[in-house]
């Protein structure tokens, strides 16, 4: 009896307790609201403008806007989520001055399928591109790029370089305000610079792109001077890239969780960030540029799986989705969307193992490898045609890159000449050449695998045998860190200046140089690279010509094998008006779009 | 029962201790660490700088020192924080657990609702057309990988129905119908294999029971066939089915990794996958330990349920 009662109680108890459990078995509950950043002292009154005449010094010549190719019918299909229901979850730490659009309120919300999780908005520490993509709508820097890749004012209204090239003085825009309503001051810029350079946070950006920066000096509340160790002509462009360049309010790391919350100056505010699920942005009504943004917010749904993004496009659930060229094929003819395939920086390449196989220290071998590759086949098969030939500086990067006609000549496949060079290097028909391993990873870029397969076949034509080893992405990256990658397939994304594409590849003091790469005229190459990097007296045109000259030298004796520049393929809903793709691979254009 | 319960809880301690040792060691056998992920080789910083970063994350310490540090934290109820965004792991798991539990719970419910009746019918009508169809379906369910089924569901619903759930997840308690429509595809994808296992287990257990003498006795007593099936056959056949369901609930918590990734659901499985991809050791360790605890608890509950199902089983 006692046992029977106990069992019944047990079962009944189980069922009763299952009800609240079921109720709790809901989707992720609202994240716990964290403390809002405390208000700071009232901003100081703007002070005098420095004597120096302000400039807006564009470092890139205007080019044509990225030409988007369109496919698909023009019929507008109202997206399912057009009414932009706000998420139920409460906002996290960043203050929400503007009310979130209520479900069914008719608020104009753009729904974006995000192909990567930002993970963290600490852009000083994070190197992943998704961090910049996720924060670009609410964080800004001193400068920015326009659609044509000119460096234009952003938080700084103007700037000038000292005559000795050892400092930049930035005049802050008096209208620039943080999302909490405070003015942006020179103290904020100084704090941000100090933090970036601080050994405590171990920013790899400080070791790289910002290695010329010595520190920041407050001239007055609206004027800040960036002091340099050496001339830094690429400085304004580097700030514009937003990589390691995000401006934070003073003491940001004490006021809020700098990794998951934000107080920025951008056209949108960070309303909510739920890692692995969503990033929600709301309009900043006090943005310094009138009538921007034109929509009430952005709902970014993190969809790492391309099948899910494609399904979301087919069903009209999202307005934007970045897809692969393969994915674009699957969406051919989908109604209510355009498939855009404008240029962006995506220089697919293959590293060479000078440090493992001394054979690669012979420039004839490197050149033979380059001549053996059929890049057109790669573009056709790996990208389904959505790409162009490229030098080290990506094609369509303003006018920094080599013209296409020249690239067609330089990068033309020539198996006979490749064989000849191999023979001269002591490897007739590849005899005696070691079997090299191709290290590659399909995650998250399937074109790398395809490139390795094509290159394997291409190299067979000159008698070189290879073995392909596919790896998990983390293992692939770790192999690179240990300098054990042999032929490593990867790609370069957007860098703000040609110097950053060229110097790290060819200079004797670069990573390649330390691994054993020596150009047949290394002395000249080093001299030119140093000049490009630090000669502040060069005009824009002189720098362009210099960059092209270096790129030619590197293609003639390649430190790595450059394949192509891939397109930025996106499905964009017809209800979105005024969107322009960015060569940077980000979506700064969202602030200018409207919803039909 | 209380004594048995306490004994099982005590036995869970060495089990979980073993899990901590295993996961701590194994994650460090995977090539790469958080520093490699944060600073890939194309961002040249030099080995000294990498070493400094490793020291910052405590990865320069001998592995046993790292383990003792971590296990001390865990013993105090602190699973640590993510190396990537400083978020406390316990908070992340608590936030994401309900979704994964919901997926697992409804997958089990759906599997049980379909598979148990089908298994009974299949056993009772042995070698009939129904039995044949049920067995073929079970083979299909076992053979089809859940990730393939998930992709097919995405394809079919988007191409044929032009439908996908809204991007904004609605909590179950707020709007159950909308919530279930949002999770319908992942639940189906998760439950198919489980359905097949449960159906086959129910069928074989029922066939075994139906051969027993007491079944003939029950029939001889003139009991209604429904009563014989439910009270005498199913109840006796249910223990192995319950065992399978229990194990699968635990398994589903880990099995949601792929499904949550494909459907973009922020659950525990995805937390684990993110941790592995980013080599975020504390996240991997914390999540695996958490899943292990759930597994142990579910198994304990299932064992206790045996007594509720079968009066012959007594604990204590």
Low-confidence stretches of chain B: none
Distance between the termini of chain A: 72 Å
Number of discrete helical segments of chain A: 18
Largest sheet of chain A: 11 strands, mixed
Average pLDDT number of chain B: 90
Query: How many strand segments of chain B?
Result: 0
As a percent range, the share of strand residues of chain B is under 5%
Q: Helical proportion of chain A? A: 25-40%
The portion of residues assigned to helices of chain B is over 70%
Broad shape of chain A: globular
Enumerate how many helices of chain B there are, as a single number.
Answer: 12
- Beta-strand content of chain A: 15-25%
Q: Name the biggest interface.
A: A-B, 76 and 78 residues
Total DSSP E strands of chain A: 19
SSE class of chain B: mainly alpha
Q: From N to C, what is the helix and strand string of chain B?
A: HHHHHHHHHHHH
Over the alpha carbons, how many angstroms does the gyration radius of chain A reach? 26 Å
| Uncertain stretches of 5 or more adjacent residues of chain A | 1-8, 10-104
Rounded to the nearest angstrom, the radius of gyration of chain B is 24 Å
Overall mean confidence score, pLDDT of chain A: 84
């Amino acid at each position: 009896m006692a046992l029977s009662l106990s069992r019944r109680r047990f079962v009944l108890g189980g069922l009763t307790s299952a009800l609240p459990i079921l109720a709790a078995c809901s989707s992720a509950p609202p994240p716990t609201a964290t403390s809002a950043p405390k208000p700071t002292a009232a901003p100081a009154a703007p002070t005098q403008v420095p004597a120096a005449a302000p400039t807006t010094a564009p470092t890139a010549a205007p080019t044509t806007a990225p030409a988007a190719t369109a496919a698909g019918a023009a019929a507008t299909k109202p997206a399912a989520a057009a009414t932009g229901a706000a998420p139920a979850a409460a906002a996290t730490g960043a203050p929400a001055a503007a009310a979130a659009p209520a479900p069914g309120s008719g608020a104009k919300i753009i729904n974006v399928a995000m192909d990567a999780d930002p993970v963290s908005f600490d852009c000083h520490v994070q190197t992943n591109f998704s961090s910049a993509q996720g924060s670009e709508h609410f964080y800004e820097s001193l400068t920015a790029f326009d659609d044509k890749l000119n460096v234009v004012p952003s938080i700084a209204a103007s700037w000038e370089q000292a005559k000795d090239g050892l400092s930049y003085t930035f005049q802050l825009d008096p209208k620039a305000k943080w999302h909490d309503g405070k003015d942006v001051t020179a103290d904020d810029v100084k704090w941000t610079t100090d933090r970036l350079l601080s050994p405590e946070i171990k920013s790899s950006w400080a070791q790289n792109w910002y290695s010329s920066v010595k520190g920041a000096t407050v001239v007055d509340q609206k004027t800040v001077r960036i002091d340099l160790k050496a001339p830094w002509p690429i400085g304004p462009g580097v700030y514009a890239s937003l990589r390691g360049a995000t401006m934070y309010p003073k003491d940001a790391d004490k006021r809020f969780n700098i990794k998951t919350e934000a107080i920025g100056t951008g056209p949108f505010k960070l309303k909510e960030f739920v890692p692995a699920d969503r990033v929600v942005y709301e309009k900043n009504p006090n943005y310094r540029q009138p009538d921007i943004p034109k929509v009430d917010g952005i709902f970014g749904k993190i969809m790492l799986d391309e099948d899910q993004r494609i399904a979301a496009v087919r069903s009209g659930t999202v307005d934007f989705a970045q897809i692969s060229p393969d994915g674009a094929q699957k969406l051919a003819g989908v109604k209510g969307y355009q498939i855009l395939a404008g240029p962006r920086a995506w220089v697919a390449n293959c590293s060479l193992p000078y440090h493992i196989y001394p054979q690669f220290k012979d420039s004839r071998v490197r050149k033979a490898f380059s001549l053996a590759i059929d890049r057109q086949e790669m573009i056709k098969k790996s990208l389904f045609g959505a790409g162009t030939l490229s030098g080290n500086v990506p094609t369509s990067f303003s006018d920094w890159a080599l013209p296409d006609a020249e690239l067609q000549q330089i990068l033309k496949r020539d198996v006979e000449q490749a064989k000849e060079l191999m023979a001269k290097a002591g490897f007739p028909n590849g005899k005696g050449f070691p079997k090299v391993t191709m290290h590659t990873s399909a995650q998250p870029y399937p074109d790398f695998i395809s490139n390795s397969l094509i290159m394997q076949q291409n190299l067979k034509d000159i008698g070189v045998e290879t073995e392909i080893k596919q790896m998990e992405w983390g293992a692939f990256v770790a192999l690179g860190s240990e300098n054990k990658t042999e032929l490593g397939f990867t790609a370069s994304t957007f860098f703000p200046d040609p110097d950053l594409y060229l110097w790290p590849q060819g200079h004797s003091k670069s990573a390649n140089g330390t691994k054993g790469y020596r150009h047949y005229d290394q002395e000249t190459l080093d001299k030119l690279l140093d000049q490009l990097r630090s000669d502040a007296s060069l005009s824009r045109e002189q720098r362009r010509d210099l960059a092209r000259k270096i790129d030619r030298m590197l293609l003639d004796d390649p430190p790595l094998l450059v394949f192509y520049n891939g397109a930025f393929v996106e499905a964009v809903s017809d209800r979105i008006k005024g969107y322009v793709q960015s060569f940077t691979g980000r979506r700064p254009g969202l602030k200018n779009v409207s919803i039909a | 029962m209380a004594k048995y319960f306490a004994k099982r809880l005590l036995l869970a301690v060495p089990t979980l201790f073993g899990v901590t040792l295993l996961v701590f060691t194994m994650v460090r056998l995977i090539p790469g660490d958080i520093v490699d992920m944060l600073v890939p080789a194309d961002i040249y910083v030099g080995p000294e700088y990498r070493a400094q970063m490793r020291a910052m994350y405590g990865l320069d310490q001998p592995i046993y020192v790292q383990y003792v540090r971590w296990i001390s934290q865990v013993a105090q109820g602190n699973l640590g924080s993510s190396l990537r965004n400083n978020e406390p792991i316990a908070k992340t798991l608590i936030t994401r657990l309900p979704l994964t539990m919901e997926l697992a719970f409804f997958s089990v419910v759906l599997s049980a609702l379909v598979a148990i009746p089908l298994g009974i019918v299949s056993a009772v009508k042995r070698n009939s057309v129904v039995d044949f169809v049920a067995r073929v379906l079970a083979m299909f369910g076992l053979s089809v990988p859940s990730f393939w089924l998930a992709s097919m569901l995405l394809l079919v619903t988007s191409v044929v129905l032009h439908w996908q759930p809204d991007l904004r997840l609605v909590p179950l308690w707020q709007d159950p119908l909308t919530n279930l429509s949002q999770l319908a595809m992942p639940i189906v994808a998760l439950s198919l294999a489980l359905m097949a296992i449960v159906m086959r287990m129910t069928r074989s257990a029922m066939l075994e029971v139906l051969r027993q003498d007491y079944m003939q006795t029950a029939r001889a007593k003139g009991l209604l066939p429904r009563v014989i099936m439910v009270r005498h056959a199913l109840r006796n056949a249910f223990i192995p089915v319950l065992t399978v369901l229990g194990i699968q609930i635990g398994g589903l918590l880990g099995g949601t990794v792929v499904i949550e990734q494909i459907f973009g659901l922020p659950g525990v499985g995805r937390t684990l996958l993110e941790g592995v991809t980013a080599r975020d050791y504390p996240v991997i360790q914390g999540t695996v330990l958490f899943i292990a605890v759930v597994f142990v608890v579910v198994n304990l509950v299932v064992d206790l349920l045996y007594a509720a199902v079968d009066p012959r089983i007594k604990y204590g």
